[in-house]
Design brief:
The complex is a heterodimer of chains A (280) and B (117).
Chain A: E1 3-10, H1 14-21, H2 31-35, H3 38-47, E2 51-56, E3 71-74, E4 78-79, E5 94-95, H4 98-110, E6 116-118, H5 125-135, E7 144-150, H6 160-175, E8 182-188, H7 205-217, H8 220-224, H9 227-234, H10 244-250, E9 255-266, E10 269-278
Parallel strand pairs in A: 1-8, 2-7, 2-8, 3-6
Antiparallel strand pairs in A: 1-10, 3-7, 4-5, 9-10
Helix pairs in contact in A: 4-6, 6-10
Chain B: H1 2-5, H2 16-21, H3 23-30, H4 35-43, H5 45-51, H6 56-63, H7 67-72, H8 77-86, H9 91-99, H10 103-110
Helix pairs in contact in B: 3-8, 4-5, 9-10
The chains are: A alpha/beta (280), B mainly alpha (117).
Protein name (chain B): Extradiol ring-cleavage dioxygenase
InterPro entries (chain B): LigA_sf, Xdiol_dOase_LigA
Domain Extradiol ring-cleavage dioxygenase LigAB LigA subunit (chain B): 25-110
C-alpha cells in the first residue's frame, strides 16, 4: 500500500507567488514570511514524496458561476497554471497522478461522495502557491499531484464535517492503493482574512495561532464548528480553513507537530503552515 | 446558512442572492482572464462592458472603480480582482475602500502594519 508520510497545512495567498515572481522574497515585508517556510522545504526534501494531494479552492479562475462543483477531483495527465488576469506565470506544469486519482474517485463514490471528475483543467494559485512554498522553483516538480477542489466561494459551501469525512476516504484510498508511493497531503487556505464588506481586512491572530496548535493536538472542536463560526472567527474568506480538515482527518488521531510558522499580514491575510507526521 | 451568516456584522457572504445579482459583473470580470478580453477592456471599456449587458449602474460602478459598490451589486472579489489586475490596483486599496478607510489607516489599523516614517 501507499504510505502517508505527512500532512501539511498552509496558506495559499496569491501575493506569495507574485512576490516570488517579482523577486521580493528578501524584502522587509516578505522575508520573515518566507524564512519561516525554510524548515518546511527542508522537511519536504528529506521526506521525498512521490505524490502530493493538494486540497484547495479555485478563486474564480477555473470555475465560473455557471457550474460550481462542491467537490471536484482531477484525473488529468497535466495541469497547467491558469492566467488569473496578470498573465502567465513562469512555473512548470504539474504532472497528474492519474491512476491514483481515478482510484480516489472510485473510493469516493463507493463511500457516497459525488465529485465532479476533471480530465482537462487548469489550476490557480490555490495549488501553485503551496507547491512553491514547499518545493521552491524547480525545473520540474519532483512529485505528481492529485488536486481536490472544494467550493469555498459560493454558498452553500460544504460543512466542516463533510471535509473531515472526505479526509477519511482519502486515507482509505491511499491505504488501499497497491503501489508503494509516498504520499504527502496538503490542506490549504486561510488563515484569517476577509476581502469583502466593511469588515474587510479582518485578521484574528489569536484564533490563527490557536488553530496552528489545535489542528494538530485537538482538531475535534474545529470539525464540530459551523460554517458561521468559521466566518466569524477567521473572516469570510478565512473559512477556507475547512480544507485543512480533509488533510487532518486523513492523518492518525495522534500526530506530531513537527513544524509550524505564523506571519501576519501576508498581503491581507494571516498566513502560516504546519507540518504534521503520524505518531507511532 | 445565508440568514444566519447575515448576522455577522459587515460580512456579506456570496450566497444565492449575491450570485444571481452579480452574475453579469462577475461574468464580465471572469472573461478578463483571457488576454484578448483584457485588450478589449483597455481599448474601449464601455463597449466591453456593454458586450456583457451591464446596466448603467453596474457600468458606472466598474468604470468608477467603486469597489464597495461593485460588491454591493453582487460582484465577488475573486472575479472583480481581474479588473484590478488590468489597472493595476493593489488589493489592500480595495480592502480600504470597502472599509471606508484611508489606505495608510487600513494597513495600520486592520492589517497591523507599522506606519511609514
Amino acid at each position: 500500500m501507499a504510505k502517508i508520510i505527512g500532512g501539511l497545512g498552509t496558506s495559499h495567498v496569491p501575493s506569495i507567488g507574485a512576490a516570488l515572481d517579482k523577486g521580493l522574497r528578501d524584502t522587509p515585508d516578505w522575508k520573515p514570511f518566507f524564512d519561516g517556510y525554510e524548515v518546511g522545504k527542508q522537511w519536504m526534501r528529506d521526506a521525498k514524496p512521490d505524490i502530493a494531494v493538494v486540497v484547495f479552492n479555485d478563486h474564480g479562475n477555473t470555475f465560473f458561476l455557471d457550474r460550481v462543483p462542491t467537490f471536484a477531483v482531477g484525473v488529468a495527465e497535466t495541469y497547467n497554471p491558469v492566467d488569473e488576469g496578470w498573465g502567465p506565470r513562469a512555473i512548470p506544469a504539474f504532472e497528474g497522478a492519474v491512476d491514483f486519482s481515478w482510484h480516489f474517485v472510485d473510493k469516493l463514490v463507493e463511500r457516497h461522495f459525488d465529485p465532479m471528475v476533471c480530465r482537462e483543467i487548469e489550476v490557480d494559485h490555490g495549488l501553485q502557491v503551496p507547491m512553491e512554498l514547499f518545493f521552491g522553483r524547480p525545473e520540474a516538480w519532483p512529485v505528481k499531484v492529485l488536486p481536490i477542489w472544494v467550493n469555498t466561494i459560493q454558498y452553500p459551501i460544504p460543512t466542516p464535517q463533510r471535509c473531515w469525512d472526505m479526509g477519511k476516504v482519502l486515507r482509505e484510498a491511499i491505504e488501499s492503493w497497491p503501489g508503494d508511493e509516498r504520499v504527502v497531503i496538503l490542506g490549504t487556505g486561510g488563515l484569517s482574512h476577509q476581502l469583502q464588506g466593511a469588515r474587510a481586512g479582518f485578521i484574528n491572530q489569536a484564533a490563527d495561532r490557536a488553530w496552528l496548535d489545535g489542528i494538530a493536538s485537538n482538531p475535534e472542536p474545529y470539525r464540530a464548528m459551523s460554517r458561521e463560526d468559521y466566518v466569524e472567527q477567521f473572516g469570510s474568506e478565512g473559512a477556507e480553513l475547512i480544507m485543512w480538515l480533509v488533510m487532518r482527518a486523513a492523518m492518525n488521531s495522534d500526530v506530531n507537530l513537527i513544524h509550524k510558522h505564523y506571519h501576519a499580514p501576508a498581503s491581507m491575510t494571516g498566513a502560516g503552515m504546519v507540518v504534521l507526521e503520524n505518531a507511532a | 446558512m445565508s440568514e444566519a451568516a447575515a448576522t455577522i456584522p459587515d460580512t456579506p457572504l456570496f450566497d444565492r442572492a449575491g450570485s444571481i445579482r452579480g452574475y453579469r459583473i462577475n461574468k464580465m470580470a471572469m472573461a478578463l482572464g483571457q488576454p484578448a478580453n483584457r485588450a478589449a477592456f483597455k481599448a474601449d471599456e464601455e463597449a466591453y462592458l456593454d458586450s456583457f449587458g451591464l446596466s448603467a449602474h453596474e457600468k458606472s460602478a466598474v468604470m468608477g472603480r467603486d469597489w464597495h459598490e461593485m460588491v454591493r451589486l453582487g460582484g465577488n472579489l475573486f472575479f472583480i480582482l481581474k479588473i484590478s489586475a488590468v489597472d493595476p490596483t493593489p488589493i489592500t486599496r480595495i480592502g480600504a475602500a470597502q472599509a471606508s478607510m484611508e489606505h495608510e489607516d487600513f494597513l495600520h489599523l486592520r492589517l497591523g502594519k507599522k506606519r511609514n516614517g
